[in-house]
Specification:
- The complex is a heterodimer of chains A (about 650) and B (about 170).
- Chain A is an alpha/beta fold and about 650 residues long.
- In chain A, about 40% of the residues lie in helices and about 15% in strands.
- Chain A folds into 4 domains: about 50 residues, no CATH class; about 170 residues, Thiamin diphosphate (ThDP)-binding fold, Pyr/PP domains (Rossmann fold); about 180 residues, 3-Layer(aba) Sandwich (Rossmann fold); about 170 residues, 3-Layer(aba) Sandwich (Rossmann fold), CATH 3.40.50.970.
- Chain A contains 25 helices and 22 strands.
- In chain A, strand 17, helix 20 and strand 18 form a beta-alpha-beta unit.
- In chain A, helix 6 runs parallel beside helix 8.
- Chain B contains 4 helices and 9 strands; from the N terminus they run E-H-E-E-H-E-E-H-E-E-H-E-E.
- Chain B has about 170 residues and is α+β, with helices and mostly antiparallel strands.
- In chain B, strands 5, 6, 7, 8 and 9 form a 5-stranded antiparallel beta sheet that branches.
- Classes of the chains: A alpha/beta (about 650), B alpha+beta (about 170).
- At the A-B interface, helix 1 of A face helix 1, strand 2, strand 3 and helix 2 of B.
Chain lengths: ~650, ~170
């Protein structure tokens, strides 16, 4: 076969083979298989001639793929199953639920279809709760919200074809934010795979770049092991979504149920325990530092290391800034003796594009930057060359690929954040910073000056509601004790700026992928996990319409989520960029043709409330919080309010537009 | 070493024989904007394991990312970073070259010098099999191209770390 050597061609060719599940060339079945490959190759855009299939088989299929009907997906070593008592003979669909029970799954979010009917048939007998969504993207985000709020693995179940593809945005969202999740997709029977059967799609191929790992189970005997591995992979190391594709004949087949005790994955051994020598080097460097900053990300929350972060900040008297994903891992406010709240003295707020003035200035002027479970995203660093120019950088992360990916690091520490911080703290207890108060005083004074120089500010004047005012009121009236989810855009940034969090796992937001439509289903997922907590989705009028159909899921499951729509009749963040960088040409960002949100809530059987004047904001929120039903609050806010400070893309993060 | 600190670089990847494993590796390269110059895959003597040898280009920073990202794939068992290890590499090429009465002797002479074999003969063409490292293959191709190469198939590199002397 001759091909034009173009970027990505190897990938495309392998996709064809993986899609067809090709077999070895010396296998008697290969002729049939390769002939069907040839057909696919002739449709291949780079191909310039018809293909002599013998050559194709010789040159290209000489790498082994699984034998047809042989051991299917998963590790090469057979499951090292240890069986207790008599194994039962069960259907694949029953094994599926036995495995879920072994993993402690209490709830799955899903939507049925032809390929997964056998599994749905078993749900009533399984004792596992199923939340029926209205769109599979919603199922993925709910599993994600559930996982972020609880720290457990979120599970969703959808059918083949469109059911599977609809979850892709949700999977990618979870992948970018390292959320532990297992997605089960139905698949057409194994005999039909590769035939363009009804509702067939190569979801393993499609989801490969946005899952931590994925599986196609081709033999019911592999099912239990694959599910065990999927949950293990999802929650260990750097967590992430794992997809398991289940052909219909596999879940209909029967076998003895054996749940493996141990997972054996030769190629997967995440480094949890950090290297002691590196921690010692970090200890020495921080001891000599005068102006340190701790820069904490979502990894702190994932490893359950908030307590260690607070202890480390305290022992070093080092200020803390967090990324959007790290919100809540360090308390933004502390309660004074009289019960009122004040900002935590070491809290800098979020850093980056819409970070606080003091956080960005502190990072740009620090001499040691300790990154903990954060990944130097471009929204954090601004122009890489100008990021933290005076700082030696220490980076603690469980994923070695995050280290020195964007920003060169002086002391890399690969390991679990909690483990690494515990040992760093122990070293400082043994050998503390000398004359700590004296050494640190000028730095903390400087930070206080920056804090006074520019505060997050807006003025609530006149008859029009400021969106920031709504977020502040939500914060005040909930006393900060809520799980906050956000959509994406201005609403997300105002939530991060004005809703002061004190606990981890209380701020759920699509940070990496920036998925509009995330907030409502994520809030539902969180509310399923915590039925008695206040869950607020801070939304925009654009984002909320991307998954509004899930309102009925909240209503029919009695999940009293509170949605606060900051309605500015614009795709506000995009409009803001058009205002600043695209000559105020507001092309395709005006949403003045909008549904009546109060009537919409009513139509879904939820409570709809509207505030159009500043004095109506508080009563609306009070009423929303007082009813135990899903509520859609519409706040008609200032149309062209912007999010500030703002660092224009490609600038140093000290170059902030302040108003 | 090419311009901009870009280097050609050989990496060996030991992988589990799973459906789609090559797609995972290839997808990693295209998805993250890394280059693959050539790629060889075949089973090893150990059941269930295959070895991928690939040649890529990039500066130190990119090569480091490639090695780390490969290691992150679940089906990848070991990555041999040949920047750090002394290694041997070979490639095989089948070259169909024009062999008219006037040039036949020259083709055979060149084949001899390169210890190549003629594996197929027809009235107007010889097909030559040659094995060697990149430089050697490059050299024979250059000589034969003056006579007239009709078709060429190269296997891509196979590479192994040298055994320790002690």
């Amino acid at each position: 076969m001759d091909i034009f050597w173009q970027f990505g061609i190897v990938r495309e060719m392998t996709m064809i083979f993986a899609g067809l599940r090709c077999v070895r060339p010396n296998d008697p079945e290969v002729r049939v298989c390769v002939f069907s490959c040839v057909d696919s190759f002739n449709r291949f855009p780079y191909n310039d001639l018809s293909i002599p299939w013998e050559l194709l088989a010789l040159n290209f299929v000489s790498f082994p793929l699984a034998k047809r009907g042989g051991a299917g997906a998963g590790g090469c070593a057979p499951a090292q199953a240890v069986v207790k008592g008599d194994p039962m003979k069960l259907k694949g669909a029953q094994i599926f639920f036995e495995c879920l029970k072994k993993e402690g799954v209490e709830v799955i979010f899903g939507f049925p279809g032809g390929a997964v009917l056998d599994i749905y048939h078993e749900i009533p007998k399984s004792g596992i709760r199923h939340i029926l969504v209205r769109h599979e993207q919603g199922a993925a985000h709910m599993a994600d919200g559930y996982a972020r709020a609880t720290g457990r693995v979120g599970v969703c179940l959808v059918t083949s074809g469109p059911g599977a593809t609809n979850t892709v945005t949700g999977i990618a969202t979870a992948y970018l934010d390292s959320v532990p999740m297992v997605v089960f997709t139905g698949q057409v029977p194994t005999a039909l795979i590769g035939n363009d059967a009804f509702q067939e799609v190569d979801i393993v191929g499609i989801s490969r770049p946005c899952t931590k790992h994925n599986y196609l189970v081709k033999d019911v005997n592999d099912l239990a092991r694959v599910i065990k591995e999927a949950f293990y992979l999802a929650r260990t190391g750097r967590p992430g979504p794992v997809l398991v594709d289940l052909p219909k004949d596999v879940i209909q087949a029967t076998t003895e149920f054996r749940y493996p005790k141990k997972v054996e994955l030769v190629g997967y051994r995440p480094t949890v325990e950090a290297h002691l020598g590196q921690i010692k080097r970090a200890h020495q460097l921080i001891r000599k530092s005068r102006n340190p900053v701790l820069y904490a990300g979502g990894g702190v929350i994932l490893s359950g290391a908030s307590h260690e972060l607070m202890r480390l900040a305290d022992i070093l008297q080092a200020p803390v800034t967090t990324t959007l994903m790290g919100m809540g891992c360090f308390p933004a406010v502390v309660r004074k003796e009289d019960g009122s709240k004040e900002l935590h003295p070491l809290w800098l707020g979020m850093l980056g594009m819409h970070g606080t003035y003091r956080a960005n200035m502190a990072v740009q002027n620090c001499d040691v930057l300790v990154a903990i479970g954060a990944r130097f995203d471009d929204r954090v660093t601004g122009k890489i060359a100008g990021f933290a120019p005076h700082a030696k950088i220490i980076h603690i992360d469980i994923d070695p690929t995050s280290i020195s990916k964007n920003v060169p690091v002086d002391i890399p520490i690969v390991g679990d954040c909690k483990n690494a911080m515990e040992r760093l703290i122990a070293m400082f207890e043994e050998e503390p910073v000398e004359d700590l108060d004296e050494v640190r005083a000028p730095w903390l004074r400087q930070i206080e000056e920056w804090r006074r120089a520019y505060r997050m500010a807006y003025r609530q004047e006149g008859d029009v509601i400021k969106p920031q005012y709504v977020v502040e009121k939500l914060y005040e009236l909930s006393d900060g004790d809520a799980i906050v989810t956000t959509e994406v855009g201005q609403n997300q940034m105002w939530a991060a700026q004005f809703f002061h969090l004190t606990k981890p796992r209380s701020f759920l937001s699509s940070g990496g992928l920036g998925t509009m439509g995330y907030g409502l289903p994520a809030a539902i997922g969180a509310q399923v996990a915590f039925p008695d907590r206040l869950v607020i989705d801070i939304a925009g009028d654009g984002s909320i319409q991307m998954n509004i159909q899930e309102l009925i899921t909240a209503v029919c499951n009695n999940l009293p989520v509170k949605v606060a729509i900051l309605n500015n009749r614009f795709l506000g963040m995009v409009r803001q960029w058009q205002e600043l960088f695209y000559e105020k040409v507001y092309c395709a960002t005006c949403l003045d043709a909008a549904p009546d949100f109060v009537k919409l809530a009513d139509a879904y059987g939820a409570v709809g409330l509207r505030a159009t004047k500043p004095e109506e904001v508080e009563p609306v929120i009070r009423e929303a919080f007082s009813v135990r039903r899903p509520v859609l609050m519409e706040f008609v806010v200032e149309a062209e309010e912007g999010v500030y400070p703002m660092v224009p893309a490609g600038k140093d993060i000290s170059e902030m537009l302040l108003v | 070493m090419e311009k901009n600190g870009k280097q050609k670089h050989t990496i060996g990847v030991l992988v589990e024989n799973q459906p789609g494993v090559l797609s995972r590796v290839a997808g990693l390269f295209s998805g993250r904007g890394f280059n693959i110059e050539c790629l060889t895959v075949a089973v090893t003597h150990e059941p269930g394991l295959s070895r991928i040898t690939l040649v890529t280009t990039g500066d130190e920073h990119i090569l480091e990312q490639i090695v780390k990202q490969l290691n992150k794939l679940i089906n990848v068992i070991k990555v041999y970073d040949f920047r750090e290890i002394d290694f041997v590499d070979r490639e095989m090429a089948l070259i169909k070259v024009r062999a008219e009465p006037a040039t036949r002797a020259e083709v055979l002479r060149i084949s001899d010098i390169f210890r190549a074999k003629v594996v197929d003969v027809s009235p107007h063409f010889y097909t030559i099999e040659v094995t060697g490292n990149e430089t050697k293959i490059g050299a024979i191709l250059e000589l034969l191209s003056q006579i007239g190469i009709v078709e060429l198939a190269r296997t891509g590199k196979a590479a192994l770390a040298r055994a320790k002397k002690h």
